[in-house]
Each structure stands twice: as C-alpha cells, then as structure tokens.
Design a protein that fits this description.
About 40% of the residues lie in helices and about 15% in strands. It has about 110 residues and is of the alpha/beta class.
Length: about 110
C-alpha cells in the first residue's frame, strides 16, 4: 500500500473525523497556543517534545495527524516522524488557522 501524502486538507480531516476514523490528533504547538484553540480529542505534544515522546506516539497504533498554527511546524514534525518509521503520519495543511477558516468559523483565530 502506498504511503499517504505528507499533508491532508482540512476537508479530508473533517471527512475522516465525521466517519469516526480512529486518529491520533497531535497538536505540536506550545501550551499557550493550545489554550486558545484546539481540535477536540487532540493531545498536546509541543514540537520540542516530539522526539522524546516518539515511543508513545508509535505505540498508540492509530494513524497520526499533526497540526500547528499554519502547518509549517507540523509538516516538519511529520517528516521527522516518517523518518522514524511512522509511515502514515500526516500534517494538517494550513494548520488550525485553516481549520478555523474552512471548517469551524467559531474557532478562535490568533
């Protein structure tokens, strides 16, 4: 089976969530950003903590979707996770900001 693309769109993520697909949503922003707005059910793993929590992320077993503010940090994290063997890890294109614009206008923007 082919590896999924590095990024998935907000609409793709919404479809997967609506279908109740078991996903591990990882917010790689900082705690103060997470406090402003976050995707429901996501786990906060700030970028600097990703390497130290690789075992936890890998052991979960669910496909990993990482997001940040605009999608740059999460893309970097996903590239690293894939190098470590998490072949299905994906980054949310445009981050939580795009989610607020495209999917959930009630979600605060910053």
């Amino acid at each position: 089976m082919d590896e999924p693309s590095l990024e998935l769109s907000c609409s793709e993520l919404k479809q997967r969530l609506d279908a109740r697909e078991a996903l591990l949503l990882v917010d790689c922003r900082e705690p103060e950003e997470h406090a402003i707005v976050r995707l429901g059910g996501s786990v906060l793993v700030p970028m600097a903590q990703v390497p130290g929590r690789l075992g936890e992320l890998a052991a979960d077993g669910r496909p990993v979707v990482v997001y940040c503010h605009h999608g740059m940090r999460s893309l970097q994290a996903v590239r690293w996770l894939r190098e470590q063997g998490l072949a299905d890890a994906q980054s949310l294109a445009g981050g939580i900001d795009a989610w607020s614009l495209e999917i959930d206008p009630a979600a605060p923007r910053y």
